[in-house]
Specification:
The chain is an alpha+beta fold and 213 residues long. Helix content is 42%, strand content 28%. The protein has a three-stranded antiparallel beta sheet with strand order 3-4-5. A two-stranded antiparallel ribbon has the order 1-2. The radius of gyration is 27 Å and the shape is elongated. The termini are far apart.
């Protein structure tokens, strides 16, 4: 009977020890996984931003879907230009004298494919994919033209839910992460690049992710 009680006590000690260990290391492991995955996702979003800015520079608006964005990367052309100040004399009928006119001259230097400028391989074909192992998920992407102070301005937004990025992690810790409000964290339940209501190409992640990159 005594041996049985001792065996039960040993089992309970092991169980409680594991629970204490897990309560301490669980959040640590969660944060390590979270930061690694966030870094990969944010780096992919930066690639999307680079492609979107190029799309706007060439076509005047942002791409509204990844098929259009990828097609642009494959077929788009940058026009290389040089701006220089110049001047010339022109007869002014009002003052009846020759007057100096200053102008900006734009010279076309050549053309270069967007793909060669932005990407050195075919990684752009994976822009829509959320880079988390074990899942097949895509970023949400939208674009629009909004009225801002009387001007029509192109905007875009790319986002993915933390529930997707951390799909296999502890649900209680994930719930806490979704409710994060911190200056050094990614606030809210999603990682977001850009905005459909404001003129911005920034993300909602802290600068530490930019510094690490």
């Amino acid at each position: 009977m005594k041996l049985a009680i001792q065996a039960v006590l040993w089992v309970l000690c092991i169980v409680f020890s594991y629970q204490i260990y897990d309560s301490i290391n669980g959040p640590i492991n969660f944060n390590e996984t979270k930061n690694e995955r966030y870094a990969d996702v944010i780096n992919r979003m930066k690639e999307i931003r680079k492609a979107q800015i190029a799309h706007k520079d060439v076509r005047g608006v942002y791409a509204n879907n990844f098929d259009s964005l990828v097609s642009f990367i494959e077929t788009g052309i940058f026009t290389l230009i040089e701006k220089r100040d110049s001047s010339y004399m022109e007869y002014d009928r009002t003052y009846r004298i020759d007057m100096l006119r200053e102008v900006v001259v734009v010279d076309t230097l050549g053309f270069v494919p967007v793909k060669d400028s932005l990407f050195k391989d075919d990684s752009y074909k994976l822009l829509s994919q959320v880079p988390v192992e074990g899942i097949d998920a895509k970023f949400s992407i939208k674009a629009n033209v909004i009225n801002k102070n009387g001007y029509r301005v192109p905007v875009f937004e790319v986002k993915v839910a933390k529930n997707v990025i951390l799909h296999d992690q502890d649900k209680d810790l994930l719930k806490q992460e979704n409710e994060t409000v911190s200056v050094d964290g990614v606030n809210g339940p999603e990682i977001i690049l850009g905005s459909l209501t404001e003129v911005s190409t920034n993300g909602n992640w802290p600068t530490i992710f930019d510094a690490n990159n």
